[in-house]
Amino acid sequence: MDGSGMTIGIGLVGYGYWGPNLLRNFRSNADFRVIGVADKKSETRERLSAAFPDIRTFEEAEMLIAHRDVDAVVIATPVASHYGIARRALDTGKHVLVEKPMCATLDEARDLVERARRKSLVLMVDHTFLFTGAVQMIKELVARSALGQVCYFDSLRVNLGLFQPDVNCLWDLGPHDLSIINHLIDDELIDVEASGYCHVNQDAPDMVYLTLHFRKNCIAHLNLSWMSPVKIRRFTIGGTDKMLVWDDLDEDQKIKIYSSGIHFQPEEQRPMIIPQYRIGDIHSPRLRKTEALVGVAQHFSDVIRGKTPSIMDGTEGLKIVQTLEMAQSRLDDNLKRVRARRDVPQ
Question: Within a 13 Å sphere around the CA of 99, how many CA atoms are in the beta-carbon half?
């Protein structure tokens, strides 16, 4: 397929938790034609064929990727399989949209980025939150410095389950906030701190506390958990002029902007004069209410057709895998140190 306006033949690999949402959105976009779906479970393929007789089903991803009418492949399978399927698709000349995180290792991510570059193919990661009305509004506010200089991010992303069999809490929930932060600010990550706990599986943390330090005096703290009795999706941004709270579960007022802040005296006066706190009005802007995956599908089409650069390409996915690997190393060290101290007899 070229950029001439022909429909893009799509093949979907994986029809589990997220696959039905992807299929629905690509079927409803006139730029795409869904050629087939690959899934290893026979009962899944039978259910799919009954619901969508016009869509071919395949047991193996390789058979779908090799189909001559498939121009692009969407991958919604366990993380460990992302690299192998994406590599096969790129080597076959297909564009790729892969679920987060892009790969299980940094070496895999680098290899996919290089393969896509050599063949001039689109490699994108489905960081869905970038297409929510909330993140798009926050991006606009940050871009025009409406909050002043961004000083910190504080995210609470917790719920009871879903426990994932192939990744821990960090790799499951972390990519959402990491992709949002990377989208909002252009800054260099210089250090990571991580701690957590394993309640269910001693090798898979189900609670993680992550702190990210950036070069331009910005800090981010992420509270990630599968062990909370309630589901919370709250993201706070502190700026020098205003502060913002995004509550994704609040359907009426997802974003609240606080005209509040702290005014610091010159450094030489700080020992004598306390900071001045400013409390002002609260504003809740109206947000666009469109399903984020609608935007993901359209963005994939526009990037393939050369209409726009990607905001979530392979290099962005690589940055997140790099951060996850760094955080995992810190987390492993922390867990090992705590266990060693716990095992010391009193």
Answer: 21
Specify the pTM.
Answer: 0.92
Q: How far apart are CA 164 and CA 17, in angstroms?
A: 11
> Are 235 and 245 contacting, i.e. CB atoms less than 8 angstroms apart?
yes
User: Is the C-alpha dihedral spanning 170, 176, 178, 181 positive or negative?
Assistant: negative
> DSSP states of 298-335 as a string?
HHHHHHHTTSS--SSBHHHHHHHHHHHHHHHHHHHHHH
Query: Residue 281's pLDDT band (boundaries 50, 70, 90)?
Result: confident
Burial label for 237, CB within 10 Å (0-12, 13-18, 19+), is buried
- Considering Cα of 331, then 333, then 339, then 342, what sign does the dihedral take? negative
Residue in the structure block whose two tokens are 């599968």:
226
Other Cβ atoms less than 10 A from the Cβ of 165: the count is: 7
Average of per-residue pLDDT values in the chain: 93
pLDDT tens per residue across span 146-169: 999 999 999 999 999 777 778 999
Q: Domains in the chain and their CATH numbers?
A: 8-127+294-310 (3.40.50.720), 130-289+325-334 (3.30.360.10)
Burial per residue of 307-338, b for 16 or more beta-carbon CB atoms within 10 angstroms, e otherwise = eeebbbbbebbbbbbebbbbbbebbeebbeee
